Amino acid sequence: MNTLYDQKPYWLEQILKSSHIGILVVDKDRNNLFVNQHLCEMSGFNEEDFLNSSAEILHISHTTYKEFARLAFDFVLKGESVSIDYQFKRKNGELFWANVSGDVVPNQNEVLWIIVDITQKVEAQQKEVYQKNLLRSVLDATPDLIFYKDYLNHNGYYLGCNSAFEKFVGKTHEEIVNHNDIELFGEEVGNFFINKDLEMLVQQKTIINEEWVDYPDGKKVLLSTSKTPFYNDSNETLGLIGISRDITEIHTKNEKILHLNERMELALQANLDGLWDWNLLNDAVYFSPRWKEMLGYLENELENKFSTWKERIHPHDIEDILSSVEENINAETKYFERVHRLRHKDGSWVWIQARGKTIYDENHKAIRMTGTHTDITEKRALQLKYAQQSQIIDQIHDSVISTDLEGMITSWNIGSEMILGYTKEEILGKHISIIYLKEEHQKLQDNMKRLKETGEVHSVVHLVKKCKIVIDADLTLSLLKDESNHVIGFIGYSQDITQKKKAQDALDFQAHHDALTGLPNRLLFNDRLEHSIKKAQRNKQIMALLFIDLDHFKEINDSLGHAVGDEILKTVTDRLSQTIRKEDTLARLGGDEFTIIVENLNHAQDISFLAQKIIDELSTPIKIEDNILYVSSSIGISLYPDDGGSAQNLLKYADAAMYKAKDEGRNNYQFYSSEMTELAFERVVMETSLRESLKRGDFIVYYQAQVDAQNNKIIGMEALVRWNHPSMGIISPAKFIPLAELTGLIIELDQIVMRTAMIQFVQWYEQGLNPGRLALNLAIKQLEKKDFLLMFKSLLHETRCKAQWIELEVTEGQVMTHPEEAIEILNQISALGIELAIDDFGTGYSSLSYLKKFPIDKLKIDQSFIRDIPHDIEDIAISQAIIALAKVLNLTIIAEGVETKDQKEFLLNNGCTNIQGYYYSRPLPAKEFEKVLIDGIDNKK
User: What share of the chain is helix, strand, coil (3-state, %, to 5)?
Assistant: First the structure.
C-alpha cells in the first residue's frame, strides 16, 4: 500500500527537512519510510542510510534497549501515545539523549516518531548533580569540621554539615539538620556555642576561638573554630558558616619546639648549603664547615670574620652584592638574595646563590643577619650551555617554535620571523593555529594527538605568512619536557620547501604530461580513466571515451617536416580544449592520437554531438607560415558500462571504433556498438531537420484557454508550439523540445513563438476581443543570454505588445539550477511590468526560502497532480497544500491538465478558480481559437 510519504510533495519535504526537530516514519514492520534532514544531521546518518534500514539504526546494540524499543513501538501501534527520554547512538558511535514522542498515523499502520535532541539538557542536569556531589565530596573529604546555621528564620538551627562534623556530633546529617546546639550538645555546651555565634553576629566579622571538646567515643581534642557570617543579595545576615580544625597535635608540637633546636643544629651540619651568621653589633661572623668546604678549605683554614667573605668576591660582583646587603639591613628589602662568584682555593671561581635575612631588636635596630650559600656552579654551567643552544636556535634560518600544552606560542626564533613574517613581540602568546590554513586546523589537532602518542610527528603542511601568502613547509613536531621529564609543551621545527616543492611538482608534471602540448600523457590518462570508471560505477552514471586520430597526419609530417607537424598538434590541442567541458579530460597518447574522457552523461547518444562538433572544429583550415592545411579526424567511441568495465577494454574498443571510422571513409565518428552509431545518426538527422524547419518557418503556434471556473470566462491563454513537418505532419513538442534544448536551438524557437504569439495577441486586442493575458514559456537558456532583456524589449516594441499583457512561465527545475542568477534576471523582467509564473510546480526541487525570494506572481499546479483527482488521496493532499501555500505567499494559482467535471469541482471547492485543460479547450490554431474568443466558453461547462 502506498503511503503519504512515497510520493511526498516537494513543499512537504522541504518543510519537514527544514524543521528543527527530528522526524522518522516507520511502517508496522519497523522499516523506515521517511526521515527529515534534521534527524540526519542529528544522528550523522544520511537519508539513504535510514531508508535502507529499519528503526533499529539508531538503537544501542544491547538486547535490553532493543526489547524496550520493541515494546514502545507495539504500544504506539495499539493507538497509545508515547513520550520518553531515551538514549540513541550516532553513526560515529557517539551516544546522545533524545525525547521521543510516538503516535500512530491514522489508517496507515505507520508510526510517526518526533525526536528532539536533549543531550545538552541531560548533560546540564548531570553536571548540576555532579557539581552538588562534587561539593559534597570535597566537604566530606576535608578533615575539618564544617557546618552552617540559619539565624534569619530560626535561632541557630543547623542547615547542613560535612561528614567530619557528623562524626564529631555522633549523629547523621538528617539528625543534625533543623536542630540547634542545645538539642545536640546539651544546655551547657550548647549555650557556649550559641554565645560565640551571637558574638560573631554582633561584630559582623569572622571570630576565632579555641575550645577543648569531647567526641562521643571519649576522645578529647582542642578545636580552633572560625565563624563567619553569610548574607543575601540585600546584605541581610542569613546565618553563619563554621570551620573547626583539630589543633591538638599542633598544641602538642609547640611543647616540643625546644627539643627541635638541637635537631636543627644537627640538620645544618648535614646540609650541603653553607651557613653564615653575621653579628652586626660586633661584626663577628660564623661560617659553617660546609661554607668553607665549598671554597676548598678546611674548617681551621679560614677565619670567621667579614673580610674572609668580602675579599673573595669577584671584582665584577662586589659592588652589587654589598649594595644588596646594605638595602636589606636598612629594611628596603624583605630578603637578601643574589648570585655572585667567590674565589676557590685553587684560583677558580665558584658560582654562589646567596640568601639571607636581617633580624631586628624591639627598637627595629638591625642586630643580626643570617643566611646560606649554595654552590650553583654546575647549574650555572648548564644554564650557560642552554643559553648558547638557545642562541644557536634563535639564529638559524629554519623555523623553531615552542608552545605550551594548550598550543599557545612560548618561543619564536629569528628563522620563524624570516619565514613567516611575524616578529616575536607580535606572535608570543598567540595560538599556533594563527599560522595554519583554516582548512588544516583539523590536521593540526590530529598531529598534536599523534605527537602525544608517539613522541614525534613528521608531515608536510601549508603555513600562512603574515602577508597571507601560503607556503609549503616540512614540519617535525616533538615533545618539550622539563628537568623531571614531564611534558610541558611542544616544539615545531619547520623548513620552507615551497621552491623545492615547485621544482618537484614541475618534475611530476613533466612525468605525467606531454612535453609538446602540455596535455596529460598516457600514464596520467590511464590513471584518470581508472578514476572515471570507478566514479561512474559508484554514481551509476554513463561515461564515454573518445579516441581521436588525425587523418593523413603522417603525410604532412613527411612532406612539410616535424616542425609544421608540431604546430598542427598544438593547434589541434587548442581546438579540442575549447570544445570540451572543463571537467572532461583531454590527453595525448602519442603521435597524432588524442583521447577524451567525458563523464556524467544523461544519454549515451548525447556524446555524438560532441564528436560531430570536434569533427567540424578540426575540419577548419589551419594556417602555418605560408601553408593552408586541412586536417580531418576519425573518432572512435566506447561507453561505460555498455562496452565494458575495465580501462584496458574501453581503450581497446574506442581504438577499434576509430579504425572503423577510418574504414568508413575517415572524417566521421563511430561507436564501438553499431546500434549506438545508428541511434546517434538518427538524432543528427533530427537536428538537421529541426534546423531546416527553423529556416523554412515550419513551426506554428497553438493557444490553450485559461478560464475562471466561477463564471467560465477566458482570462488568458498559453502559447504552445507545434512542428508542422513537411513529410511527418504535426510533431508533438515532447519529441523535439528536449533536442532543441540540448542543441541550443530552443533560443531561436522561443523567439519565433514569442514574436508570432505577440503579433496575434495584439491583433485580437485591436479587434476588441479582450483575450486576457498571454502566457509564454521561457527556456532557461534564454535567461542565461546576456542580451535577453534587450531582445525582449525590442520584441515588445516591434510587435506593439504591452508588457502588462504578457506572462512568462519558467519551470521550477530550470530556475533552481542557478537560483541566485535566476533571481537577478527575473527581478529585471518583473520590473518591466511582466507577470512571472512557476510552471510544473511541485515537480522540481525549490526550497521555501528561494520561493520567497523569486519575484513570481503565479503558481501552476502540474497536471500530474490533477490527473487522478478526486480518487487519489495523495494527489488531493498535494494539490490542497500547493493551493494553501499560494494563498500564504499571496500568489495567484492555476491548475493545468483539468479534464473532468469532478476535477473542476474539487479545485473550485478548495479555492483554485483558474483552470487550464481539455475540460474547457484543447490547444487550438489561431483561427479556431479566435472563434472561441468570439463565442465564449460553453456555459454548460
Answer: 45, 30, 25
In sequence order, which residues have a C-beta less than 8 Å from that of residue 639 and are 6 or more positions away?
A: 542, 543, 544, 545, 604, 607, 671, 672, 673, 676
Q: What is the mean pLDDT of the chain?
A: 83
Give the C-alpha separation, 879 to 822, whole Å: 26
As beta bridge partners, residue 113 has 24, 102
H or E segment and range at residue 578: helix 562-579
Helix count (H) and strand count (E) of the chain?
36, 37
Using the predicted structure, report yes or no on whether residue 847 has a pLDDT greater than 60.
no
Q: What percent of the chain has pLDDT over 90?
A: 13
Q: Provide the pLDDT for residue 490.
A: 86
- Rounded to the nearest angstrom, the gap between the alpha carbon of residue 373 and the centroid of all alpha carbons in its chain is 61
Euclidean distance between CA atoms 631 and 648, whole angstroms = 28
Distance separating alpha carbons of residues 616 and 597, to the nearest angstrom? 19
Type of residue found at 639: L
Q: Which grid coordinates are listed for 58?
A: 539508531
For residue 22 the three cell numbers come to 527530528
pLDDT digits (tens, 9 = 90+) for 278-336: 888 888 888 888 888 889 999 888 888 888 888 899 999 999 999 999 999 999 998 99
* Over residues 854-876, mean pLDDT: 85
The rounded distance, in Å, linking the Cα atoms of 117 and 108 is: 27
- Decide: 458 and 475 in contact? Cβ < 8 Å: yes
Which helix (H) or strand (E) segment holds residue 220: the answer is strand 220-231
Q: What cell was used for 662?
A: 577510418
Q: Where are the alpha helices (DSSP H) in 271-359?
A: 289-294, 306-310, 318-329
**Cβ contact 465:471 at 8 Å:** yes
The grid cell for 851 is 520561493
Q: Do you find a cis peptide bond into 289, omega within 30 degrees of 0?
A: no
The separation between the first and the last C-alpha atoms of the chain, rounded to the nearest angstrom, is: 36
Average pLDDT estimate for 26-39 = 84
Distance, in Å, from the CA atom of 857 to the CA atom of 355, rounded to the nearest integer, reads 90
Q: How confident is the model at residue 826 (pLDDT cuts 50, 70, 90)?
A: confident
Length of the chain: 941
**What is the phi/psi pair of residue 615, to 5°?**
-60, -45
**Amino acid at the residue 873:** I
